[in-house]
């Protein structure tokens, strides 16, 4: 193995010690939280110390740098991208990482409070018997999404700067804000980045390689009711909360908890209300563009049905596109995916080429002119207290970056 196992683990710990949680309530500002600059400044200093060229940190927290080619000439300029923010779903402050040598069974996270990483609930744990796994104390997430990706890119870059005899083409590096709130890539300057294509290091388990993702939209449904004294409400009261429940019952029952693979879903993410007003918030997802458009239409058509039934203006529905399936952009340039798959095979890793049941910055970047498949970063159970990172996945992701950049690209 070329990379230093000890150094990449310490590097990862250094990055997760910085709280960078993004904030969906402030997503109209980039970055949504100023604390993301804390990690950006740390990384900028490290990049400059490693000798990267043109290291820039923008006022909206995009960090770019270049490692010049050193002998592998005539190659496309490739980039590697990871996001600095951690999920708003759970705290990323004061993370207490712990390395467990795993021999099977459950892993206690906080024995006093009975918080356990269960092998029954998460059976994929058993794949890592005999290896080391990093876990939390059960009170924060681990932030391997996506600080593992950052550590893997930076460790590969440091190796290359220490070994000038290892030939590679020009490499662009970018660390971005606000991926978790879906707005970071909106402000990515593709022209300034200057890569022909890139890879986001933002996937899950070892071998993941993805160039398909969901088409995505959000939907907000608002209901207007009428409140009167409940003792005299017959024929007069209109309970907005009842309307909301009825509306939800009209939609197909394709929910995240009963879909998989290429199946799309309607996901009710939030509901609130009183007798007079209620709201339902959904995210709509489908890999197939036609089915995606049907999901959006069903949300709007159901609102029309309710207005016909209960009176115009009773229900309003707002649907907004969020991102689209990058396959239509990447597939014409499949050599980008094939190059990464070949690099994995050269390391003894079986590529798991599939579709993301979610999205990455790469989906937006692909439509902005930067084809950008997604490569595994190595973690499991992102966004919650049960997140964990098998250390071999961390090592092999960094090795994959090295293999990609030191192997000539066949663009045919």
How large is the share of residues in beta strands? 15-25%
How many angstroms does the end-to-end distance come to? 30 Å
Count every helix, treating DSSP H or I runs of 4 or more residues as helices: 10
Gross geometry: globular
Largest sheet: 8 strands, mixed
Q: Note poorly predicted spans.
A: none
* Average residue-wise pLDDT: 95
Q: Provide the gyration radius in Å.
A: 23 Å
Strand order of the largest sheet: 1-2-8-3-9-16-10-15
What are its keywords?
four-stranded antiparallel beta sheet; eight-stranded mixed beta sheet; alpha+beta; 412 residues; 17 strands
Entry summary:
With 412 residues, the protein is an alpha+beta fold.
Give structural notes.
29% of the residues lie in helices and 23% in strands. By secondary structure, the protein is α+β, with helices and mostly antiparallel strands. Strand 12 and strand 13 form a beta hairpin. The radius of gyration is 23 Å and the shape is globular.
